[in-house]
Amino acid sequence: MKIVRRRFLPLAAAALLASALPATAVRADVTIGLILSLTGPAASIGVPYQKGIAAAMERIPEIAGEKLKLITLDDASDPSTAARDARKLIEQDKVDIILGSAGAPASLAAASVAYESKVPMIILAPAVMKPNQRDWEITIVQPMSMMIAGVVSHMKEHGITTVGFIGFNDAAGDAVYDGLTQAAGTAGVTIVTNQRYARTDTSVVAQVLKIISLEPQAVLTGGSGTPGALSHLTLAERGYSGAIYSSPASTNNDFLRMAGASVNGMIIPAGPFVVFEQLPDSNPIKQAATDFKAQGQWRVDQRCFCRIRL
């Protein structure tokens, strides 16, 4: 199966710029501030975003006759750096709009600065904004609660009544776990444990042993990119044989490279563009994804035999 995920989203972000830019802008270059994790644990997501947005900029160099100018900063996968980047882009570079970032923690940090300065921001990660921020910011990724509700629905359909959770100890992990808690109760699924780890950790043996000792029928992981592979590798090493689910953030080439055979059989929720070549020609996603692949920015990975829930 061909697995791709985030490389299509930057094209959608570029298309949204027309509606997000201030209505009072005069004809001049529109300056876009892009904050991405080009180094650090989230770089496996940030670098593909950068390539995708570059391809989108080539295809959409201007909007309503106004040329687009892009300024890219690296947040190094660090929320405090993302906040500083946002402030620099706003105060020094005078950007009209901000895009970012690769992960939820960095995105939320930058979004707080953008809201404070009343600069619109398109958020590329599944970050949950505060209600008062939504007039200035929009998230283009499907809400994690909706995606994990699909996971829990699959569990219920297959008679799974107990699940263990292991994920990042940050906003990204919180989003996956919160989605699980929201859906599990009404589906009759009991969460037996909530195990967390930092993106920079090199071992999750203690967390995995705790999960295995409780014998859940399934495990849901809440990681992403290369650090997210750690929980899957350890579950396989320790002989866990139950069902393994993850979030859409796991459809990432570097994650698959690191996790290898440990994620064969993993079940994830994903949008239809992940398997666009299998879609009927009548599906509008198929043509858009095909065009984007033709830009030369789409690299697929066929090593993971995962099941995708559309």
Describe this structure in words.
The protein folds into 2 domains: 9-139, Response regulator (Rossmann fold); 144-270, Rossmann fold. α1 packs across α2, α3 runs parallel beside α4 (104-117) and α8 packs parallel to α9 (253-259). The protein contains 10 helices and 12 strands. The chain starts with 8 loop residues before the first helix and ends with a strand. It has 310 residues and is of the alpha/beta class. 42% of the residues lie in helices and 18% in strands.
Topology, please?
Elements: H1 9-20, E1 30-36, H2 43-59, E2 62-63, E3 66-74, H3 79-91, E4 97-100, H4 104-117, E5 121-123, E6 137-139, H5 144-157, E7 162-168, H6 171-187, E8 190-197, H7 205-214, E9 218-222, H8 225-237, E10 243-245, H9 253-259, E11 267-269, H10 284-297, E12 307-309
Parallel strand pairs: 1-3, 1-4, 4-5, 5-6, 7-8, 7-9, 9-10, 11-12
Antiparallel strand pairs: 2-3
